[in-house]
Prior knowledge:
Layout: H1 2-12, H2 14-32, H3 50-53, H4 60-66, H5 71-89, H6 91-102, H7 106-117, H8 124-134, H9 141-150, H10 164-180, H11 182-189, H12 193-201, H13 206-231, H14 238-244, H15 250-253, H16 256-266, H17 272-301
Amino acid sequence: MKNNKLLKKICSRWQIYLLLIVPLVYLFIFSYLPMGGLVLAFKDYNVRDGIWGSPWVGLKNFAKFFGSSKFPLIMRNTLTVSLYSLIVTFPIPIIFAILLNTLGGKKYKKVIQTVTYIPHFFSTVVMVGLIFQLLNNRSGVYGSLFTFLTGETAPNILAKGNWFKHIYVWSAVWQSTGYNAIIYIAALAGVDQSLHEAAAIDGATRFQRVWNIDIPSILPTASIMLILAVGGIMNVGFEKVLLMQNNLNLNYSEVVSTYVYKIGLASGITDFSLSTAIGMFNSVVNFILLVIANWGSKKLNGSGIF
């Protein structure tokens, strides 16, 4: 009986299910089908024998990565950049959305929102090129201002490893704040204005109305976004990190994603098994963090993604 009811519901809404076919096929081909390659993490892969014919080595590749001298460095860099990025880039769009929501003029709000989300559409290559141009210690804006104010040549911060994380994170703030704030602006637009009117009549200040009405209204949305951000905490932006790397900042910029690329493709070693094992370890850590963040969110405010 249940199957018949389900079939009737599907038939009554067949157009919606037909639309789902394309994204489902896309997910299957590009997200689920490649998972078969994860078996490489447990094998000593060679081209002659292929994926299934290569000898099974169990957890040897994982042990090789954990025992590597680069493991502590890579994990330190990955966690440092990821946590720094999460702490800075997560709350700023929320604050920006709340401040933008308090503006009275609709024209000003539209202009500010448009100007701030345009940088999101810059490609990573263009973004890194802008960073190099602006922060060049001789010909860039930073170098020119430093020389103008001090009469000396500016230090090359692009070659200083301890500046890497700051440049990476704060350039991401400039690029992503406006775009990431859109979802919070949409959530704030759905707040019942009668609540604000009633609070104003009772003598509540603007700050009190924001604190007691706006923030609780966007809290479920913020919780979901935080869970997703924590679930991808190990996925430091590969392209941007790789483009910003140089020999002088490598000890501060080498993260899991760039190390996987170099081991698997770029270094001449082409150790596909080891790179697959490292990538799998990265995904498992992200999954565990996602589950923990979802559990914590449901305990604190009752909202989660599953």
